[in-house]
Amino acid sequence: MNAIINSPLFGILLSLAAFETGVAISKKWKYSFLNPLLIANILIVGFLLATGISLESYNVGGDYISVLLSPATVVLAVPLYNQISKLKKFWKPILAGIFAGSITSMACVIVISKLIGLSDVLMRSLLPKSITIPMGSVVSEQIGGIPSVTIISIVVTGITGAVAAPAICRICRIKHKVAQGIAIGTASHALGTTKAMEMGEIQGAMSSLSIGVAGLFTAIVAPIILNFID
Amino acid sequence: MRTPLQLAVIFAICLAGEFLHRIVGIPLPGNIIGMVLLLALLCLKTLKPEQISGVSSFFLNYLALFFLPPSIAIMAVGDDVLSKWPLLLCLCIVFTLITLAVSGRCTQLFIRKQEYRENLAIRAERLAKRAASSRKKGGDK
Q1: CB-based contact, B11 to chain A, within 8 Å
Q2: Do A48 and A97 fall into the same domain?
Q3: Which residue stretches of chain A have pLDDT < 50?
Q4: How far is B134 from chain A, CA to nearest CA, in Å?
Q5: Could you list the residue range(s) of the whole structural domain that residue A60 is in?
Q6: pLDDT tens, position by position, A137-165
């Protein structure tokens, strides 16, 4: 049995099956909190705990999929390139909004963590929580956080953004379509962008644009801020 | 481009990013440097989006799948993290709402400012034109 569990195909098969189940469930019941990644994560963790199979055995195959995270990030340049003409008209407000949002997100994490005495490693794990997962997980690793905690916090952040975005736009009277898109993309990356796409084409384009910019900005600024507060 | 060649191009860009990070010492994650490299190649028209569309749309369509194995490592985090999960959940939600509001208001503020300035410029132009035409009419009489 061990030979089967420790085959790379086992981890790969488990990942593919759980992922497709997650997608099927989220398609059937269209609630924003039923995120495919979250469902698949719970399914696999539950399966491994129930059967007593170790994380190491899963990772024999899982690592093959993790390797593809790098090319998956690189191709994010394609949607960014497609939006580049839209960036040109409002580039000043867009950059200002993305920078303000990214700084706010990081400042919240640092200030509240210090206030309630959260451990340093948790603070570092939460710091890149507003950016897209391929970027956030490597930034987390680089600044000394725990990538898996970062990934879960990124998913929670994304789901919150997707669920709450229309209400926040109404309450704070954010009416301009470009501003709505930028807010969603900056605060809740690709998961929020799915909601922005529903709200309209301009919101969707602006949201997907800010994923890359906010990610890049956070990747550059997070280590600098941490150096500064140490 | 055939799919294996598209994959080769993307993987080569990934490795170039890792090279710039690890060997040259640029303090950004390798895959993010790779993203900037690809963006540069697209902007310089060295590479057309259609040429890598097969591979890029595959990765973009199933993006979440590639995060799944790293996220399973949540099993291995210590009890100190697990015991704090309700707090962490609340923090994530509240921070997201604040970030949404600040980012949106800030963008809107600057857009309004820009539009106001553009409107002033357009109005000034119109006034100048009207003044010029009325002067012309006056001259005709």
Answers
A1: yes
A2: no
A3: none
A4: 34
A5: 2-67
A6: 889 988 999 888 898 888 888 888 888 88
